[in-house]
């Protein structure tokens, strides 16, 4: 298996997925071909992992499948090189596409690069996608349905921490993710700022994430939201669990997504979801949340206000989240993954 570095809270959706998989796959053989850092760091991880993989494929005959986790842009082109190497050594190739912006990556490419992207996708023995909507899109650009399968993203079983709950009279909203425009966190800040007097004493928002931290802190301060919004920095482990136990509602108004792990995590803790109808989100947020238009701050505020005014709605939609997230818990996902591996090994060239 290959993809992004995933240890020590490395950012990114691929890192999160592999981190969870590593808890459920014994003796995982994983080769990270990308790690955050400067050009030399990135080149070092790619080259050394390629060499290590080549040695493994030459000398370990038990290796029959190379499972690649890819996003768009540079991630996809790196994985295209790995695919060629794996095919050269006679291995089955699974290309597991996590990219939230793969449509943009493909549509914004010139005709020559589009042809190269399609060639790489079609040469994979199997394309794993995150949702039925993504499967339909890949079909629309020419990938045969029989060469694709949907594998749910995985989220761990929840850990109860009742002591994390606070009876402070507020409705607790939580955002976890990269701090930037794509995830919509600044739209949330502007939505609350436009209704600051209504929000005071009714809602509390906690934000966990990385990148652009100074810009976020400045926005909170300039809008006078210090009593309403709290930035937690990067959260993981016990701190993340405490925040998920604290939250009443999860909010992630992204502009593009694959299928966010953070939404599934929040659902496993019984949170209704405020998000947007992009990527695979509408397939998990139906009777358990509110979908708003990306970038529409007024819709975001109305959704938050609705939950603040209706505690019973939080309870009923939270119960729906618990039902909807069951297929994404480890038992079902790992069983499906094993079935995928067995089926691909039975497939002849």
List the helices and strands and how they pair.
Blueprint: E1 2-4, H1 13-22, E2 31-34, H2 39-59, E3 65-70, H3 73-88, E4 92-97, H4 102-107, H5 111-123, E5 126-129, H6 132-140, E6 148-150, E7 171-176, H7 185-194, H8 196-199, E8 203-208, H9 213-222, E9 229-233, H10 237-246, E10 249-252, H11 261-268, E11 273-275, E12 289-291, H12 297-309, H13 311-324, H14 330-346
Parallel strand pairs: 1-2, 3-4, 4-5, 5-6, 7-8, 7-10, 8-9, 10-11, 11-12
Helix pairs in contact: 2-3, 7-12
Mean pLDDT: 94
- How much strand? 15-25%
Reported by name, the CATH topology of the largest domain is: Rossmann fold
Structural class: alpha/beta
Oligomer: single chain
How many structural domains can be distinguished in the coordinates?
2
Helix fraction, binned, reads 40-55%
Please count the beta strands (DSSP E, at least 2 residues each).
12
Categorize the overall geometry. Answer: elongated
Report the uncertain regions. none
Total helix count? 14
CATH architecture tag of the largest domain: 3-Layer(aba) Sandwich
Distance between the termini: 21 Å
What pattern of helices and strands is seen along the backbone?
A: EHEHEHEHHEHEEHHEHEHEHEEHHH
Query: Strand order of the main beta sheet, please?
Result: 9-8-7-10-11-12
